Amino acid sequence: MTYLLITLAVLIALVLYHHIGYVALLKLFSRDNNKRLVFAKNTKATASFGILICAYNEQAYIKEKLYNLGAMLYNTKMFAIHVYLDGCTDNTYEEAMLAQAQLAKQDVVCHLHFNKQNQGKAHAINELIKLTKPNYDVLVFTDVSALLSIDVLMNLDADFKDTRLNVITGVYILDEHATTEQKHYWQYQNSIRSMESALGAVIGVPGAMFAIRSKYTDVLEQSIINDDFILSMNALKNGGKAVVNSEINILERECDEQSHDYARRVRLGAGNWQQIKILYKLLNPQLGWVSFNFFSHKVLRGVMPIVLALIYILLFSIAIFSTLLLPKLLCGIITSIHGIELTKKVFKIKMKLPIVDKINYILNAYFLALWGIIKFERGDYKQHWRRVHRSNTQQNVTIKVIKRTIDIVGSVTGLLLLSPVMLSVAAMIKLTSRGPVLFNQLRVGESNDDFVALFDVLKFRSMVVDAEAQSGAVWASKNDPRITPIGRFIRKTRLDELPQLWNVLVGDMSLIGPRPERPVFYSKLEKDIPYFSQRTYGIKPGISGLAQVMNGYDESIDDARNKIGWDYAYMLSTSSPRSWCYMELTILFKTLVVIFTGKGQ
Fold first, then answer.
1. Mean of the per-residue pLDDT values for the chain?
2. H-helix segments, 390-418
3. Angle subtended at Cα 397 by Cα 179 and Cα 389, rounded to the nearest 5 degrees
4. 431 Cβ neighbours under 8 A, 6+ residues apart
5. What are the Cα distances from residue 80, in Å, to 30, 55, 104, 498?
6. Tell me: the pLDDT tens digits for 401-448?
7. Please, which residues have CB within 8 angstroms of residue 424's CB and are 6 or more apart in sequence?
């Protein structure tokens, strides 16, 4: 019995060290060991990037993914996209070709590599590595289902100036529809990676996006399960550092349902077990923090399902065959925790018990991982990779309905309440300059795959009549002589935009959205600014918007280029009702600030 108790104590100590002790040590040492060099970001690209994507039946996301990559704020001659279409049986190839044609107009190079038969992700990655490794300084691996912040390449370029860095990743953010347990899990993982990053030894990267110096990128064995982990850790086997750049955001749009999450946990368990066998050389103490973190984080994570199973067996054996009170008490607690979960499932009880639910999620994850280890050892993972889950893409109808309802109510209310102000502005314009009170101008509206809407926007006239008769179509400048005295005031306060409430009411525009651009500028803007034509894809332009309140009126192509990031941030917010609602309220508040402080141009 003594030997059983000692063994149990050692196993419990391992569990406590892995979950608590290791985290405590990271917090202690990461405070004073962040020796990462910080290089200034600039617009001059220095590193060339090959962006690699493996796609198997990704028709729901592939086009948006490629447009996202095409929007990168980086010299288009210094990066190229490579998509390996691995035996797709849906319309992924056709969707990718449409996106490729659009990217070509923006001078973004996108190569599509088509394979008729699905041979698995490891094969696809290997083919891409062979094709691209000699041609680029850095290889960026990313999933179709993940959207990246548009300054990713700029951030990577700055970081890779530190020659000690071999691997860089970003902060992994789950979509709002992810389960609470998944969110807590990734919050924990992001916290751990942040502390490991301070030591230059991030152990494991999210497959959604990570970058490796090309010369440290090795091909994989065909039977690899966790390809992202093996790729990133192989790059550290001879030295070098891996870090997280907190300014790089990786938004995962595809979130698993609970049943699919369980299936993924089984596969991850098998992968964790496999990678211990493959990467045992990382246990070399000469690798410093990489070796220490690898053992504490991934080796213990890989064996933890077996450790927990042994603890259960020993604990219940001691409780049954001894008179000790503590083991009996612990067994009672464990039984109660699992009993609560079973009761909730049988009777479909949705009441949340945060602590109990979190413990059950962790324990279930480990026992699913144990099943993964068993499956791996009996040879179940010799077949090549398939996605655990593929959901059909659906537009967020809820947001569209709510947004249109707000537009109708808001425009009607605005036209009624602001009619005295509008009449006053009209009178001032009429009394101080010749010409009509209103003017209309052709603008580009909402677009999709089949059409681009054009409409006449209404505004109070703020310039002299025939302002472009001599100069042609040009942007207004801050001290533009064509602007009338009254026009200068109504532009600063944005009162010139009030007639657009009618455009909102009839459905040409929305109260909030990207700025509607003039078609006459479109050919130039599309050529000079990647992703410009997609700024109103599926979204109506707005009277106010994030780009408008952050940057004001456009005076040049550079101004329009700066706004693309804001427009894209707004588009991303529409992926979930909560983030969209927060964004709308933020823009509304900033709009009121502009109106009442006269900070418009």
1. 84
2. 397-417
3. 40
4. none
5. 36, 16, 11, 44
6. 788 888 898 889 888 888 999 999 999 998 888 888 888 888 888 877
7. none
Query: Residue 318 and residue 320: Cα distance in Å, rounded?
Result: 5
Q: Is 138 helix (H, G, I), strand (E, B) or coil?
A: strand
pLDDT of residue 559: 59
3-state secondary structure of 169: strand
Contacts with 585 (C-beta within 8 Å, 6 or more apart), sequence order: none
CA distance linking residue 21 with residue 26, whole number of Å: 9
The pair of three-digit structure tokens given for residue 213, joined into one six-digit string: 């110096």
* Three-class secondary structure assignment of 446-496: EECCCCEEEEEEEEECCECCCCCCCCCCCCCCCCCCCECHHHHHHHHCCHH
* Cα 157 from chain centre: 19
Pair of tokens at residue 106:
């923006």
Q: Where are the beta strands (DSSP E) in 157-234?
A: 165-174, 209-213
Q: What are 318's two structure tokens? A: 């001691």
- DSSP SS3 for 217: coil
Return contacts of 1-9, CB within 8 angstroms, 24+ apart.
Answer: 1/318, 1/321, 1/322, 4/314, 4/317, 4/318, 5/318, 7/310, 7/314, 8/311, 8/314, 8/315, 8/318
Q: Are 292 and 18 in contact (CB under 8 A)?
A: no
Distance CA 96, CA 240 (A): 36
Give the integer Cα–Cα distance in Å for 567 and 554: 14
- pLDDT, tens digit, 9 for 90 and up, residues 196-251: 999 999 998 999 999 999 999 999 988 899 999 999 999 999 899 999 999 999 99
DSSP of 487-541: HHHHHHTTGGGTTHHHHHHHTS-EEESSPPPPHHHHHHHHHHSTTGGGTTBTS--
Comparing 437 with 33, which gets the higher pLDDT? 437
Question: How far is residue 91's CA from residue 51's CA, in Å, rounded to a whole number?
Answer: 22
Handedness of CA 222, 365, 171, 584 (dihedral sign): positive
From the CB of residue 77, how many other CB atoms can be counted at a distance below 10 Å? 11
